[in-house]
Amino acid sequence: MKGSFRTIELSDTPYESQGLRFLIIKTPNLLGRGDICLFVPEVENGIDNLPIYILLHGVYGSAWIWALKGGAHHTAKRLIDNNTIDPAIIAMPSDGLWGDGSAYFSHHSKNFDQWIVNDVIAAIKENIPEAQNSTATCIGGLSMGGYGALSLGTKFPEKFKAISGHSSITKLEQMALFVEEPIEEYINNTNLPDVIDCIKLNQDKLPKLRFDCGVKDELIEPNRLLHKELNELSIEHVYEEFNGGHEWPYWIKHVEKTLKFFNIHK
To answer: Which of these, 208, 66, 39, lies nearest to 131 by C-alpha position?
Structure first.
């Protein structure tokens, strides 16, 4: 079968470590190359339908950061090894590397959303044997990645079984808290700047949904507002608050809630 991408580079097994693999593909959606870091658990030969759990990074990050700053692969391996979750592939793509963060939607002639919802999934299925016949994909993320997970997961509900956000940006204007680029560079390039607008598009067919935020996080009130808006729309979801701020110790601790949620709803 001919692959979907003109060029592909996949890391070689002898040089890989801790179950991490790295994949680079060239795609028209990015007008160039995109990176994906993958945790592929050890499974019996012949298993080719592992679920794919996508974790989206926040501003300033890239494909490596969920693993090498957040230890997401260690969390996944621990949960798999103690039979808390079934084996799954953890996919950690870059956001397309525009500015301080692309926010995962199409702008400036690049389809950052299609990169995630189409290219990333296709690249994994075509190049990772354990995912060749995967039928379940879930999407999560932190901060800007939480915005990406909540917005992409609800704009493209047919692609995902479940959605999870940590410390999520909920309105696009909140990107101004973090990025150097003028907020107009984002706002003027989309008709759906807020998570609630994306949710309303498909509120009768949404994937399973959860999100959480730290009580010391500067985004706590926006997350509380989204929870309130969802309740007013009678949209089923899980919302939780925990101690902590907008910081890696919080995300390292709570990403396992995302993986457990995905495992239930895959």
So the answer is: 39
Three-state secondary structure of 112-178: HHHHHHHHHHHHHHHHCHHHCCCCCEEEEEECHHHHHHHHHHHHCHHHCCEEEEECCCCEHHHHHHC
**Nearby residues of 132 by Cβ (< 8 Å), 6 or more positions away:** 48, 49, 125, 126
Cα–Cα distance measured from residue 80 to residue 256, given in angstroms and rounded to the nearest whole number = 11
* Distance set, CA 81 to CA 10, 73, 86, 266 (Å): 26, 12, 9, 18
Model confidence pTM above 0.90: yes
Distance separating alpha carbons of residues 50 and 149, to the nearest angstrom? 20
What is the distance between the alpha carbons of residues 244 and 188, in angstroms, rounded to a whole number?
A: 33
The size of the chain, in residues, is 266
Which tokens in the block code for residue 194?
A: 């807020």
CB distance 72 to 255 below 8 Å: yes
What is residue 206's DSSP assignment? P
Give yes or no for a contact between 18 and 71, defined as CB atoms under 8 angstroms apart: no
Each residue's pLDDT tens digit, 4-62:
999 999 999 999 999 999 999 999 999 999 999 999 999 999 999 999 999 999 999 99
Phi, psi at 241, each rounded to 5° = -120, 145
